[in-house]
Design a protein that fits this description.
It is built from 14 helices and twelve strands. A nine-stranded mixed beta sheet has the order 1-2-6-5-4-3-7-8-9, with helices on both faces. A three-stranded antiparallel beta sheet has the order 10-12-11.
């Protein structure tokens, strides 16, 4: 991308009103769709006049990026994510901190959810990251408290690439408690991005605005937990508007943070009960048949599930001893205990 084009995009991002930004985006999309391979961004930007007094503000952005060792990329850059470029309200520029190659990763999945996750939500984040690292998928989230940070930590612990999308400028980390997490992301070849310019105050609605980027750069969006009225549901709505594959983890009807995800599933989102459900049926990899050697698992192989009382009788084991054994097997993802019912995990 030419320096002139980048400067004009930075200027528009800094100074344009929302209506002018949307008009510029619409013109870019219209020309791009009409001209295809002959599309020339410079021809669209020729009408963007940068006043002399604004040159100082642009230089201030570029100098800050250089000082911090960051990068600023504009729409049309070789690093600009293709999927993100296809959404109606794409960001004109992205401020980047870390490994720029993450933007070129073909397989990305957004994993987001409640700031106050349940035990099941926490466990699902780890299970999903462990599974996604095998293929591999790059995990994209928002570095917020709760599911977002768990998604990043799970990705890091299982060697899965991860991208954090911030609402605030990339030279500061919010919340401050996640400064070390941000450093770990960078240290493990991850990336931190934002469309918010340096030195700009972060307003509350920026966090909602950021969500369209989280979903926009991904093929899949997984809402782990979220109430009906929450930031997670705005991400889900963006995913639907952007025609992304939407996934959600079901939960108890009595659990507030499952209200939104249950409603998404009710309206057509893919239900995720196990990590393998993150692949829709026609793309799901073949799974090897598990071989069980533990007596409890072998007992469950015929029917798939059994009540604890019946299992205790058949195995002639006191219930308190059986419960301890079941806890160990559940931690190994061999079975799942729900109330007094034990179910074998496929």
């Amino acid at each position: 991308m030419s320096n002139t084009n980048l400067r004009k995009l930075i200027f528009a991002n800094l100074c344009y009103s929302n209506s002018r930004l949307n008009a510029l985006r619409s013109t870019i999309i219209e020309r791009r769709d009409a001209l295809a391979d002959e599309f020339d961004l410079a021809a669209v930007l020729k009408d963007v006049d940068v006043p002399k007094e604004s040159e100082i503000a642009i230089d201030r952005q570029l100098n800050r990026a250089k000082q911090c060792g960051h990068s600023i990329i504009g729409f049309g850059s070789e690093y600009y994510p293709y999927l993100l470029s296809q959404i109606a309200d794409f960001p004109l520029v992205l401020y980047c901190r870390g490994n720029m190659e993450r933007l070129k990763d073909e397989k990305k999945i957004a994993v987001v959810g409640s700031r106050k996750p349940t035990y099941d939500g926490k466990k699902m984040c780890d299970m999903a990251a462990r599974y996604l690292a095998k293929w591999p998928y790059t995990v994209v989230s928002g570095l917020a408290y709760g599911i977002d940070s768990l998604a990043h930590r799970g990705a890091l612990s299982h060697g899965c690439p991860t991208i954090a999308v911030l609402a605030n400028p990339v030279d500061e980390v919010m919340p401050h408690n996640h400064i070390n997490l941000a450093k770990q992301i960078i240290a493990q070849e991850g990336l931190i991005v934002s469309e918010t310019p340096y030195f700009e105050r972060t307003y509350g609605h920026y966090y909602v605005r950021r969500n369209r980027i989280v979903s926009g750069m991904c093929q899949k969006v997984f809402i782990v937990e979220g109430a009906r009225k929450s930031g997670s549901m705005t991400t889900a709505q963006h995913a639907l508007d952007q025609n992304r594959e939407l996934y959600a983890m079901p939960g108890s009807i009595c659990n507030v943070v499952a209200g939104g995800t249950n409603n998404l599933i009710k309206n057509g989102a893919h239900a995720v009960i196990e990590a393998e459900d993150l692949f829709i049926p026609d793309e799901r990899p073949e799974r090897a048949v598990r071989q069980y050697t533990h007596p409890v698992a072998q007992l469950l192989m015929e029917d798939g599930q059994m009540r604890i009382e019946k299992m205790s009788q058949m195995m002639d084991i006191p219930i308190h001893i059986l419960l301890s054994e079941l806890t160990i097997l559940e931690c190994q993802d061999i079975l799942k205990v729900t109330g007094n019912m034990v179910t074998l995990v496929d």
